[in-house]
């Protein structure tokens, strides 16, 4: 590790770790032999899991890394930052015990300044334990948890080398509403804005230091917009000081989901000799937000309806061990899918995902880790510290508009889920982020006094066909947010919203109808400020052996019909550079043989759609305008009641069989041309289209001008394979942990995907990448997918696919 002239040096610490799944004694010692341990790059998961895992690896594992610190860094402060570790971490440096960190979703720092030896080998050792632990949030045992405790050092690790006179780390400093750099805004308008900056400086020198802080705002091109200098303050030896500065900006570029403009805040620390001892760059977005029942949600004084989804951080095979690029690719897909908001269900997610949300224009709510569980004592103390740490880490992200400080679906007062506890959580959040731009959110269900708990944005909840909370007589001035909808209400664990991508046209259409019907209902709710569907991407569940398949995207990030329904809700006049945006049209149909006249559903954000069959027009339609109707026999046998225990919640309701027909299928008439009047953009439903094999084409027009088109063709017999590498806006990085999905599409002679094809496909990879997980793999709806992970060296990658009876395919690309 070589020295640098920079005042602050951050080194990526992800490579060259040794790893073992075993609870080794004395493995923390510097001289402990790690022969036979696996060499890994971070982020890393302890075990490659099967695609349909429920009870994944739980237990002990160890990580060790040898490193050398150049003697030029003597006199500097050295910290190792773990972005997260699942979920109890013990850390040693050169055999010296440093700390225990409990919690799997937030960062922690280790000060190694006094522990390293310069110019020789040092060893950091980490022992991880992700077994069930009721004291560590979310706390619930894996076998009854609705997501997964995938283990490991699953986020980045960094080494920070800084001067003894430096800006502190926000989490490590441990100061309410303090530490690091804290940026807030006031008097925000298109004409001007006031940027309020607070900078916490620590002096670890043995003598007092005269200190000045220079704060500059740079535009997207790096050009100086405004700059200010603080007064010179004397910071005593071993002491600290918080500098407060105000910068006025004329004609600011405001951050908004449609125009996510980011400035860079450059903070420089200057000592009495004129030396820059530290500098820090923070991306910021200038904006102001508000929530109220009367005005709804506003951003920069403009009303905006929140159209969101939920996201788990999990991926097939590797669990939560995702690279920064992978986090960006997920955010991009959700943005392109028409969403402007993501609920990070149910825990703080990677900083890289929030960085992507800042950049792409996705608003977020960040929940404290929790799910149907509470316990007095250490658990609640960690919950309260989690709230502080997540706000300190993420308070400068413009994407962050709410802080969820209730434990998800946690109502049992006997376990400690009391009004008093959640009221304290609300107060902690406001202590950490003073002022009118802090908005707590949470669940009022089970609360005896919702007004006392005092969430700024209480969650609503479906009950039968009505959204019933918050109650007007209890919370008369507060709007509500629908945090989850579209899944459990349509049949519990047998929900008709839980549909794999290969389920076929009818089930995919029913899934899309469920979300359309629910979204239309939400928009008619006078309480609702917006909503988030459950869920954006399919994910594994600890309590259930099947993947939760209610996502708009499947676990391989391939879209279902409902993805295009949400995409049609985006504004056609908003265009983002290098992002799929603007006008769109999609035919939700496989166009295969049928015996009766077909109902063709088209999703589009255009004014009108024309449908052509084999080049001949079969109709031009405006958006559907039919009436709202009852969904049908929505009760499918489950007594859905969130006040009940887990065991009671899923019992069959007495006499519920009467609500099913003879086949047990819901009695629903989907896509009836109605249930759409509250939507931003209704679907286009074409009735009585007589099937004729060939090409079905849709043109979307705005103001009579063609803006978008889509074609679906009747698939012929499968002939060949075609490989598509999903880079998702970021090239595959040669860092040993980045990954992309490689899709082998089964095509007919015309290049149409044969959705009925389920061949077993074998992938072969040469060069600077490897396949992680299953191979060969069976195709689903005509596409077979593998996860392709980079090696830590740049170079060419050659991917070849084979399947019996099909022409093989090969593709080449380079990773950098």
UniProtKB/TrEMBL annotation:
Domain DUF4982: 599-628
Entry similarity comment: Belongs to the glycosyl hydrolase 2 family.
Positions of the Glycoside hydrolase family domain: 724-810
InterPro entries per record: Beta-gal/glucu_dom_sf, DUF4982, Galactose-bd-like_sf, GH, GH2_Domain-Containing, Glyco_hydro2_dom5, Glyco_hydro_2, Glyco_hydro_2_cat
Coiled-coil region: none
This protein's name: Beta-galactosidase
Keyword Hydrolase (UniProt): yes
Domain Glycosyl hydrolases family 2 sugar binding: residue ranges: 59-160
Residues covered by the Glycoside hydrolase family 2 catalytic domain: 294-414
Keyword Ligase in annotation: no
Species, as recorded: Paenibacillus macquariensis
